[in-house]
Specification:
The chain is mostly helical. 70% of the residues lie in helices and 0% in strands.
Length: 132
């Protein structure tokens, strides 16, 4: 989906002749968008857990909104690099250059959070009463 939207954006941008376009700009934008998607998708394991435990999409939607709010607060307070759900937004460059804000620990925290979410989701599915 990310690649489709990026390609569609390139097509629309060329049709309306956006000024300042260059191959270097397209390459940088592609890396930013793809990297943000790669960091965001693993964190969806918690959304799966909340949707499974809550037996619907509304608890998962609430979780998503909560993490977005907390990610913004963490980023403003300077702790965004330690909060897994803030890392994709910081990587995208929405709050400034990523080299100043993210370190190796940020990516490790995203991986660890993803693994915890996956383990918890699989544990829930294994023991959940699927007949209700």
């Amino acid at each position: 989906m990310t690649l489709f939207i990026f390609g569609l954006g390139l097509i629309v941008g060329s049709l309306v002749v956006i000024p300042g376009w260059s191959v270097e700009l397209a390459r940088t934008a592609f890396i930013n968008i793809l990297g943000t998607a790669v960091l965001t998708i693993p964190l969806m394991s918690f959304v799966a857990l909340i949707a499974s435990a809550g037996r619907g999409y509304l608890p998962a939607f609430g979780w998503t909104i909560l993490t977005l709010v907390l990610a913004n607060i963490a980023a403003v307070m300077g702790w965004g690099d330690w909060f897994p759900w803030a890392v994709p937004g910081l990587f995208s460059g929405a709050a400034g250059p990523r080299t100043e804000q993210l370190g190796l620990h940020s990516y490790v925290i995203v991986i660890l959070a993803s693994l915890v979410g996956l383990a918890a989701t699989f544990y829930w599915w294994r023991d959940a009463d699927q007949t209700r």
